[in-house]
Structures are given as structure tokens and as C-alpha cells.
Design goal:
single chain, seven-stranded parallel β-sheet, 8 helices, about 35% helix
């Protein structure tokens, strides 16, 4: 299992990084992206703190990616913040997409897809044109296990497949019970309308593009 979207106490998660990593390790994770919510006010603080978990990698069986989730950032400022996050050492940049269960600013999806980011999380009712842009700019589209955000998984999967964009399954973990194993991830992909073969391919191979 590779999960590229999780949170700790450094934003709105419940776990400190060590506990999150340990719980993921027990679930059989091979890699974990820690991507706490950021805007211009806390991006430097979050990356400074999360980067310290790299000290653990030599005693773990889990690869840790230090990242951020750009959250409710005005679309016109997306590129500036993404550039800053890269300069501060972000190995993984996720953008909080236009989920229908939060008041995300219209235009966020497109701004993310035109910026140097890695994953557009829970992109909601993404358009085919945006899915094409994700493919062209090598931005992964997320199928999520997160309650609420996952109501548009089927739509995202359908348009992602049509556009031949890269799909990934992530948890958007905030609490211990959010972590899943590989079998559950495959079920989530199947629940979004993918065949077992395609679901397995997405779980096993697609996250590797970010490692």
C-alpha cells in the first residue's frame, strides 16, 4: 500500500508523525506521504517540522515523503505557494480540490493542474478538459476513501480513464481509523467503477510515479 495524502497534528490530524508512520507500517504500507494543510501562513513551519521524520527512515520499512496540501488557497495564488513549497523542500504537493462538500473556490482545480503539483485531491465534478490537462501535466487525480469527499469518486474515475490521466487511491487520513490496507484500497477503486484488474493496477503501479 502506498498512500500519498495524510495529515498529522501539524494541521487537523489526530496523530503525531511517529504514530501515524507506525500505524501505517503495521497496515503494510510501503510509502507514506505526510501532507498537512498549508497556506502562506504556515507552509514554512509545517515543512520544517515534518521534514524531521526523515530521521526515522533508516529504521523503518516505510518510505516517507514530506509534503503539503495547499488548502483553500485562492486560485490566482496557487502557483506562487506551490513554488514556495518546492523551494522549502516539499517532495510532494497535493492540492485540496473542488470537493462538493466544502466551499472550495471555483477555478481551484484548473489552477492546480496548471501548476507544478503532484496530486489533485478529491477534485469533485472535474471536467473532461481538466482531466485532459491532468494527463498532459502529469498531475495525478485522486480517488479517495475519505467520507464525504468520496461521493464523486465514480465521476473522477470515469473521466480520468477517458482522459487516460493517472489515477491514485489515497486515504486523506486524519485519524487512526482512516488508514486502510491494500485490499480495502482495491475495493474503493472498484467501488468507483473500475474493474478488479484496473483497480489493482492503479493501487500497485500508479503511486510509483511520485516516488
Amino acid at each position: 500500500m502506498i498512500d500519498l495524502h495524510t495529515h498529522t497534528v501539524f494541521s487537523d490530524g489526530e496523530l503525531i508523525p511517529c504514530e501515524l508512520i507506525r500505524r501505517a507500517e503495521v497496515k503494510g504500507y510501503r510509502a507514506l506521504g505526510i501532507t498537512d494543510h498549508v497556506d502562506f501562513t504556515n507552509v514554512e513551519f509545517v515543512l520544517t517540522q515534518i521534514s524531521k521524520v526523515k530521521e526515522l527512515e533508516d529504521v523503518l520499512n516505510v518510505k516517507i515523503l514530506v509534503g503539503v496540501e495547499l488548502t483553500h488557497v485562492p486560485p490566482s495564488k496557487m502557483d506562487k505557494l506551490a513554488t514556495l513549497a518546492r523551494r522549502l523542500g516539499a517532495e510532494l504537493i497535493v492540492v485540496h480540490g473542488e470537493t462538493p462538500v466544502e466551499p472550495v473556490a471555483p477555478g481551484t482545480n484548473r489552477a492546480a493542474l496548471e501548476t507544478d503539483v503532484d496530486i489533485l485531491a478529491h477534485p469533485g465534478f472535474i471536467t473532461l478538459d481538466e482531466a485532459d490537462l491532468a494527463r498532459d501535466n502529469n498531475v495525478c487525480l485522486e480517488i479517495t476513501s475519505r467520507k464525504g469527499h468520496n461521493i464523486t469518486n465514480g465521476h473522477v474515475a470515469r473521466l480520468g480513464l477517458q482522459a487516460k490521466a493517472t489515477l491514485v487511491v489515497d486515504t486523506d487520513t486524519h485519524s487512526p481509523g482512516d488508514l486502510i490496507d491494500r485490499q480495502r484500497a482495491i475495493q474503493i477503486a472498484q467501488g468507483a467503477g473500475l474493474t478488479l484488474e484496473k483497480a489493482t493496477e492503479i493501487i500497485v503501479n500508479n503511486p510509483l510515479v511520485e516516488l
